[in-house]
Write a structure and sequence with these properties.
It is built from ten helices and five strands, in the order E-E-H-H-H-H-H-H-H-E-E-H-H-E-H. By secondary structure, the chain is of the alpha+beta class. It folds into two domains: 148 residues, Cation efflux protein, cytoplasmic domain (Alpha-Beta Plaits, 2-Layer Sandwich); 197 residues, Cation efflux protein transmembrane domain (Alpha-lytic protease prodomain-like, Up-down Bundle), CATH 1.20.1510.10. It has a five-stranded mixed sheet. Helix 3 runs antiparallel to helix 6. This is Cation transporter.
Length: 357
């Protein structure tokens, strides 16, 4: 086993050092799958002595939501402004569908505000008791957002059903004006959030909510035109039901992604079996076990494994060269920079088996 004197320099390497690693002949090509940020980080974990590799990329790193904070603030301002416009329009027109759209707007604003606060809390440094800091706060915020979305959908649905059979006079002109303004604002917000919705659960939650608002505004516009031309006020209730139906599946989708993170399912861009095959292709590696891949928070995947190396390769190549190729593979091919690997020679693995027999 290496001694303390054999430990490599722990000075951080350049960010692109893993990209420069030459893979051994026959090493598989990386899968054609974009990582959580829509690209490849090209970086692996930092190497430590004793056959361990730990990435320190979490220290001071911005979370996925934090990187898009300015966009979220802009969308929050737009959403609050349109909420006030639609509430005024709903009170004047007596339109349930417009009021439902306004309620959804308020939910959007609340969700974005929660995401912003969560991103600030998630940026707090890690401590000895909270070794990952508060990164998961963003995920909890997305959970709250998804629950509120679902509740709003149910409330709108129930109120629309309750209104059937009762005649409510709808003022179509103010209804149309407020809905058109809302649709234009929602379209602008969608364009603002487009680039960040693939990186962060909270940005994606906001994006889905605004998309639902846009569809809801379109439904209100159609209902308003029909009421203006025909006087069929029941169309307003139908539009309200449609808005509720649009909201609910998006809430379920967001909650499903949150549950995957909280249950520490493997990130969607990491095929664990394929990652194991890649690691086994590194010369000298004879076994991979205790493999774990999970998501700490949006845009921060993590990977750990125990790696058994043949005694001949351990003595001839040294664990440093093997470790470098392993972490370069995981960084370049699977876009995972927070990597922890425990390397051990086969003779030590046999010794452990005897101890645990």
């Amino acid at each position: 086993m290496p001694t303390a004197d054999d430990r490599p320099d722990e000075t951080p390497e350049p960010a692109d050092s893993a990209c420069e690693t030459d893979f051994s002949e026959g090493h598989p090509e990386g899968p054609a799958v974009a990582g959580p940020a829509g690209g490849r980080s090209g970086s692996g974990g930092q190497g430590h002595g004793g056959g361990h590799s730990h990435s320190h990329g979490l220290d001071g790193a911005a979370t996925a939501t934090g990187k898009h904070r300015t966009r979220l603030i802009l969308v929050l301002c737009i959403t609050l402004g349109i909420f006030l416009v639609q509430v005024a329009g709903a009170l004047v027109s007596r339109s349930l569908s417009l009021l439902a759209d306004a309620g959804h707007m308020l939910t959007d604003a609340t969700g974005v505000a929660i995401a912003l606060v969560a991103s600030l809390i998630a940026g707090l440094p890690a401590t000895s008791k909270r070794t990952f800091g508060y990164l998961r706060v963003e995920v909890l915020a997305a959970l709250a957002n998804g629950i509120v979305l679902g509740v709003i959908a149910v409330v709108i649905f129930v109120e629309a059903i309750r209104r059937f059979g009762s005649e409510v006079e709808i003022q179509s002109v103010p209804m149309l004006v407020a809905a058109v303004i809302g649709a234009i604002a929602n379209l602008a917000s969608l364009l603002i959030l487009q680039s960040g919705q693939k990186e962060s659960l909270n940005v994606r939650g906001a994006y889905l909510e605004v998309l639902g608002d846009l569809l809801g505004s379109v439904a209100v516009i159609v209902a308003g035109v029909i009421i203006l031309l025909t006087g069929w006020n029941v169309v307003d209730q139908i539009a309200s039901l449609l808005i509720a139906v649009l909201i609910f599946p998006r809430a379920v989708s967001l909650l499903r992604d949150v549950v995957d993170v909280l249950l520490e399912a493997a990130p969607k861009h990491i095929d664990v079996d394929e990652a194991r095959d890649h690691m086994l292709a590194v010369p000298g590696v004879v076994e991979i076990h205790d493999v774990h891949a999970w998501t700490i928070t949006s845009g921060v995947p993590a990977f750990s494994a125990h790696v058994t190396v043949s005694d001949e390769a351990w003595d001839r190549l040294g664990h440093h060269a093997i470790l470098d190729e392993l972490r370069a593979c995981l960084g370049e091919h699977f876009d995972t920079s927070h990597v922890t690997l425990q390397l051990e020679p086969a003779r030590h693995a046999r010794h452990e088996d005897e101890l645990h027999a």
